[in-house]
Amino acid sequence: MSVQWFPGHMAKARRQIEEKLKLIDLVIELLDARIPLASRNPMIDQILKNKPRLVLLNKADLADPEVTARWVEAFAQDGLSALPIDASSGKEVAQIVPKSKERLKEKREAQLRKGINPRAMRALIVGIPNVGKSTLINRMAGRSIAATGDRPGVTKAQAWIKVGTEMELLDTPGILWPKFEDEQVGIRLAATGAIKDEILNVEDIAFHTTKYLLEHYPDMLKERYDLDELPTVEQLEEPDQVVAVMEAVGRRRGCLQAGGMVNLEKASQALLRDLRSGRLGRISFETP
Ligand code: GDP
Questions:
Q1: Ligand 1 in contact with 209 (CB < 6 A)?
Q2: Which of 8, 27, 41, 37 is nearest to 128 (CA)?
Q3: Any keyword Endoplasmic reticulum (predicted)?
């Protein structure tokens, strides 16, 4: 998971997907349910043109279910069918074939009218690194196909994976770059583990994440780390107040250094680990 996106890489990624589009009936666009905006490729509409599309909001197990439901509605208003799933446990994955069929209904009905028996739908999974493409492919295949984790630059012969009798999936997903709009988007990508911690400073990521959690999910922080008092909304504007919470987290997690001081780097890593593993609770970083 170490893709550094430069213009040349983006052009190549786009070309690779455009080549594959010729082979398929449907695109399965995989987004992170916690950050459907930041995890969405900024050029996706131009790249996919009018290919029928199914949006999957993956890692829904880690996202705030109420917020995810609002995202499903927002996508529906844009004419896109979005399905929350959890590729690692397989939750809702069985819905992908029927939902895809629905997306291709008109074409299939037209074929049937002409007396053509529609062949299995051919689909391509696309998404940014670490969104869960390999996990989903393995889940749909019912066996281990690709090594999980992203392997840019490694090419191999393309093959179709049968998903039941009605769908065939390209075994290599399309890898796309995320949004890089501004620092806030970068923080969200880093907080959820979509980009490596080394790209941004881990204490900065944890600082902004703690601030966000204090604003939106204070009870989760309080419960998880047994904190007695949290800063008020006004106090959050003072960086020291946020850092004090990070230090309290560090003390609870035993991230101390010589002299009993909190090691803020270790505290930051512990907080992000708890967040990414879901131990803090189900948290969304973007709302429609
Ligand atoms: P890819 O780079 O898009 O192929 O992503 P991977 O399939 O390698 O997944 C990246 C990481 O996300 C792995 O650690 C997976 O176990 C994890 N992951 C994938 N799907 C889910 C999911 O639905 N829920 C959770 N909690 N983790 C997931």
A1: no
A2: 41
A3: no
Burial 22-42 (b: 16+ CB within 10 A, else e): eebbbbbbbbbbbbbbbbbbe
The response to whether 263 counts as a known ligand-binding position is no
187 CB-side CA count, 13 A:
16
pTM over 0.90: yes
| Whole-number average pLDDT of the chain | 92
Give per-residue pLDDT as tens, 173-187. 999 999 988 888 999
Q: Is the ipTM of this complex over 0.90?
A: yes
**190 CA distance to ligand 1 middle (Å):** 15
CA atoms lying within 13 Å on the CB side of residue 125: 32
Report which DSSP code applies to 262: B
Residue 154: CB atoms within 10 Å:
9
Distances (CA, A) of 54 to 28, 82, 123, 279: 5, 6, 10, 30
What confidence category does residue 4 fall into, taking pLDDT thresholds of 50, 70 and 90? Answer: confident
* Assigned token pair, 243: 């850092």
Q: Is the CB–ligand 1 distance for residue 59 below 6 Å?
A: yes
Q: Tokens representing 125?
A: 């999974």
| CA-closest candidate to residue 288, choices 27, 140, 16, 72 | 72
Contacts 24+ apart (CB under 8 A), 181-187: 181/42, 184/208, 185/37, 185/38
Mean pLDDT of 219-237: 93
